[in-house]
User: Fold this.
Amino acid sequence: MKAQTHRIKYYVLGFYLLLLAVWQGLYAAQVLPDYLFPSPLQVVRRLWELGADNYLWPSLKATFQRMGIGFSIAAAVGLLIGLLMGMLPVVNSCLRSLFLGLQTLPTAAWVPVSLLIYGLSDHGIYFVIIMSSAPAVAIATSDGVLNIPRIYLQVGRTLGTPAYAMPVRIILPASLPSIVTGMKLGWTLAWHGGVSAELIKSTIGLGFLLQMGRELNDAAQVIGIMMLTVLFGVLLDRFVFGSIQKRIRVRWGLAQQA
Assistant:
């Protein structure tokens, strides 16, 4: 099993090296002009220049700070509402269709609303992040609660678990796999919404650097910031949400401890 895992890692590395080679090959073939399709080296050089000019690191800090605050609020609100939806059929009937509708709304659609309410301020970015991600967390949490086998609740009552302790001792642990999946989706939507809001509402952040690159016709900067955004998403999935999901699978006997 370990040997197979190592082989897969080499395959993944080879795949990305192949992508870089294709990118460089297309650049060398001059499929598009340099100012529209820069080489990998030009993109790396532009990111280095942004860092040296003290644009990149403050923008990264600002984006992650906004995401940390906004998503923490969204996760807490979505978790609470999701638990209520899962335990109270009336609340679930009232809110599920609304939240499903909100999930279909593009995250960027919240930006004009936030401009009307908050103007050009960080509060508007927090609003976009919360509205983009909270419904996904709530729906996933409610699904996790609704899919709990009834035997778990019966065993909890038989063992003397009081009604007020059921959400913490039985319901929340049993629905944890679904909650983590919802958190993962919620973070993705929050990331989309936050960067979209920074395109318009901010003078610092990854979204602002994307907008600045567009205004300067700097394709290397635009592609570089896009690559950083993708990289952070992959790393977060691998080392945060992926690690949590793996521990849950091990805890529930669905996978072996590595």
Observations:
- The mean pLDDT is 83.
- The longest helix spans residues 219-251.
- The two ends are 10 Å apart (CA to CA).
- The CA atoms of residues 48 and 209 lie 14 Å apart.
